[in-house]
Write a structure and sequence with these properties.
alpha+beta
Length: about 170
């Protein structure tokens, strides 16, 4: 496991934008006013992880996404789970495990100009193998995969060291 917190310089994203990113494992929530997105490491009763394919980013990852106007951080992650994997997550299941802090280098892309945070949660789904269905097209082909398969699909992503925190038992 990579030592955290970890500062990553000049991370390039699929849209060509660049940001410095700090991965911080913590049970403390990022300041809600500065959180622009949220995601969750969602594991079922056997320990398998819900993952989705993002056509925009070209990668597998946990369910999550950008906040909508007027939406709380928790409302964001609950909505994203419903849209991307078709499960109705109880907000009480969410355990904050860390955040990514973004400092934009370029003025292109979707980032808030002042930067901000992506809040990461973990959650335990009480069932095993429940069918996952994408309700939106921004994330497709949701699947339950074992942690080894999740590592094989996503272990090279800049955010992986923080997701590993959610996989630790």
């Amino acid at each position: 496991m990579t030592a955290l917190p970890l500062r990553l310089e000049a991370v390039e994203f699929a849209d060509g934008s660049v940001a410095h990113v700090v991965l911080t494992p913590t049970a403390e929530l990022a300041p809600p006013a500065d959180v622009f997105a949220a995601m969750v490491v969602l594991r079922d009763a056997r320990g398998w992880c819900a993952v989705t394919w993002s056509p925009r980013r070209g990668e597998w990852g946990p369910p999550g996404g950008w906040r909508e106007p007027g939406e709380s951080v928790v409302e964001c992650v609950v909505r994203e789970v419903a849209e991307e994997v078709g499960l109705d997550l109880d907000p009480e299941m969410l355990v904050p495990i860390g955040h990514e802090q973004f400092e934009p280098v370029t003025s292109t892309g979707r980032w808030p100009r002042q930067g901000g945070f992506m809040q990461l949660y973990a959650a335990a789904w009480p069932a095993v193998g429940e069918a996952l269905v994408a309700r939106e097209d921004d994330a497709v082909d949701p699947q339950w995969v074992d942690p080894g398969e999740f590592l094989a699909r996503s272990g090279r992503q800049f955010w992986w060291p923080l997701v590993e925190v959610g996989l630790a038992d």
